[in-house]
Amino acid sequence: MRGWRMRAGCALLLAVSGCSAAPLATAQPTTQPTPSAAASAGSAPTGVVVHLFEWPWKSVATECRDQLGPAGVAAVQISPPQEHVVLADQGFPWWQDYQPVSYAIGSRRGDRAAFAAMVTACHAAGVKIYADAVVNHMTAQLYGVGSAGTKFTQTGYPGYDGAADFHHCGKSISDYSNRDEVQNCDLVGLADLATEREPVRQRLAAYLNDLLSLGVDGFRIDAAKHVPATDLAAIYAKLAKTAGGTAPVLYQEVLFSVSEPIQADEYLPSGAVLEPRYGPDLARALRTGGSLANLEGLGDGSGTPLVDYKPSASAVVYVDSHDSQRGGTTLTYQDGALHTLAGQFMLAYPYGTPLVMSSFTFDSYDAGPPADAKGVTLPVSCGHGWECEHRTLLNLVAFRTAVGDAPVSQWWTTDDQLGFARTGKGYFALNRAAAAVTRTVETGLPAGIYRDRIHGTAVTVDASGQASLTIPAQSALAFDLTSR
Known about the structure:
Organism: Hamadaea flava
InterPro entries: A-amylase/branching_C, A-amylase_C, Alpha_amylase, GH, GH13_cat_dom, Glyco_hydro_b
Cofactor: Ca(2+)
CATH superfamily of the largest domain: Glycosidases
Pfam families: Alpha-amylase (PF00128), Alpha-amylase_C (PF02806)
Keywords: Calcium, Carbohydrate metabolism, Glycosidase, Hydrolase, Metal-binding, Signal
Number of domains: 2
């Protein structure tokens, strides 16, 4: 429906971070209490997470076995596994997956059996599974049939009482300065769940617990900003432990601006949050005309310009996401080498948990993944409708693991190059210019011959810790103690 296309153009993807209607001067936001840290049921993600956006379950399993596990990737973020609307008349757009019909595990990516097999295969490869969970709303459709065959109406879904379990604000969100409207009105026509109600909380927790029973290790909480933090905390408190006996990982989508009443800090007691400013800041610095010097101190509050990012241990960062790559604020696969450089910097620099995007090719905002005539997603074949850009970054996973939490030192920048050491553990440098550049640098590493993890070439560090680096055009170098 047209309302959802408006969402695709701005309302959810960008409005929550600033692309919204002008605030009404008379808006009176209410105060939202912050949940107690004691109510937290989740943990923050660690390691490198790869987002296999819209990948079918069988392809995810194969990628875990053949690529991600061997590279040392910690986890995969998968697209929402629940039954969703099927919008054949709109060309099966990507966002139909974010309109739940029921909590049956049956999407265009595969059924429950395929999902369970995928989780098992990824775990066997040492890769955890984080599911994208839609808990704010159901569909924006008046009626229809879902991907698993369930009939529905806009407030009539399995397990819900349409008269009581949904908010009836009577309009879509337009004023992002009004807390009540943002959290109690419909997100561009999507039926808004009354998450303050205990039956709704129980239903959502039952769905998440079902995924945990299948071996899922954690969740990305979609549109968390549109659900009061206290409601989410109450839902999280009902979650079971993972199969490994730990609290599930939780990271929440709270796309905010400093002028809005709803801030990410409200959600931090329950888990990590996505840091929406990181990708745009990285893009501005790396694009032509941007200053690489602005990347110094990124995330610790000492950079230029100063940005008060969320604490590193509670922040999930990304070069681009499935939302931002359609909004123009971040670099994407369409930026080629610059996008790769941004990803390499993210993995080499010690801020946040990196979430690496893996896209399908698109030439319009609404375009869905490669699919058959019935809208069922086709197996992934890199280079044939699937970008698989994450594979260009897998060789940096070992570098990130090797340098651990070693601080940055020996920072330097020029107009088109930068470099820094991860003190005593490794060294990284990048070059965005169209020609190679040679520079002698202080690495802080023991003398020896190291293997550059990106190109496989040798780097010699002398007895004084210096190395003469030739950084290829629009590329980077990274080496560490374990590559010596």
